[in-house]
Amino acid sequence: MVDEVITTAFEAIGIPKMQTAVYLDLLKNKKSTAVQIAKRTGMHRTNVYDTLAKLKERNLVFLSYKEGKQAYAALTTDLILNQEKEKLEHLESAMNYINTTYVSGQTPKVYTLEGLSAVRSIMLELLEKKSTIWIYGLAENENMINTLNAKVMHAFQIERTKKMVNLKMLFYKAPAGEKSLLGKLKFTEARLLPKTQQSKSSQITQIVCGDSVYITLWIDPIHTIVIENDLIAKEYLDFYSLLWDYSKKI
User: N or C: more exposed end of the chain, with fewer CB within 10 A?
Assistant: First the structure.
C-alpha cells in the first residue's frame, strides 16, 4: 500500500512506475547488480538495465562495483526534492514574467464587434471607465464625427460632461465645419496631426480608454476590434501622448 502511494507521487512528478519500482528496490536492498534487481522485481534484465540508465540520468542511482561486477545503489530522496524545488523556482519565475508582461496573469482579451450600433454602445460604455477617452484617426470621410453628432450620442455628451470625462481627439485632417462644434463641447480637446502623419483618407479609427483599445474599420460592414489589456492600452497611450505634443491645437 505504501509503495502504491509512493508510485503515485513519483508519477505525478514524471517518474514512471518501472523506475519507481527499481528505485524502491535499491533503497530496500542497498547496492545490487542488475541481475539481482531483475530477480527481486520480476522484470526482464534488459528492462532493468534501461531503467537503471534512466534513473542514473535523473541522478537517483549511481554506478559502482561489487566483487568486480557493476552494481547500482540508490541516492537519497533529497535529490528528488531538490530537483522539484528547482523546477518550482523556474515555474515561479515564468509565472512572475507572465504576470508582469500580461498584467495580473491574464492574456489580452480580443474580440470583434460589428455595426455602427456597436460603436455607439462602446462610446456609452467608455463613460463607466471614468478615464480620459482618446480618439485617434478622424478624417473627413470617416463616420465617427457623424456618430458623435447623432441624436443617440446626445446622452453620451451629457453624461460625459456630468462625469467630467475628458475627450481628446487627434485628427488626420482638419474637420471642415466641425471647429465650432468642438469649441462648444466641454472637457474636449482636439488637435491636428503633423503633416508627416496626416492622411488624405483613412478607414480606421482608434479609441483608447482605461485598459481597453478599440480599432474601428470604416468599411462595409463596420467592424470594431476590441483589445482589453492594461499593458497594450498603455503602449497606445504613450504613442498618442507623443503625437499630441507635436500636433497643432484646433
Answer: N
Contact between 168 and 207 (Cβ < 8 Å)? no
Question: What is the structure's pLDDT at 7?
Answer: 85
Range of the domain at 46: 2-75
pLDDT score of 139 more than 60: no
The 3-state DSSP composition of the chain as helix, strand, coil percent (nearest 5) reads 50, 20, 25
CA dist 192 and 173 (Å) reads: 7
Asked whether residue 92 is assigned to any structural domain, the reply reads no
Q: What is the mean pLDDT of residues 64-92?
A: 79
Alpha-carbon distance of 173 to 84, in angstroms, equals 60
DSSP assignment of 169-207: EEESS--TT-HHHHHHSTTEEEEEPPGGG--S---EEEE
- Give a yes or no: residue 97 inside a domain: no
User: 182-207 burial string, b = 16+ CB within 10 Å, else e?
Assistant: beeeeebebbbbeeeeeeeebebbbb
Q: Nearest CA to 216 among 130, 155, 148, 166?
A: 148
pTM here is 0.53
Q: What mean pLDDT, rounded, does the chain reach?
A: 80
Cβ partners under 8 Å of residue 126, min gap 6:
133, 165, 207, 209, 210
Is the pLDDT assigned to residue 132 strictly greater than 80?
yes
Alpha-carbon span 219 to 222, nearest angstrom:
5
Does the residue 86 lie in any domain? Answer: no
| 216 lies in the same domain as 148 | yes
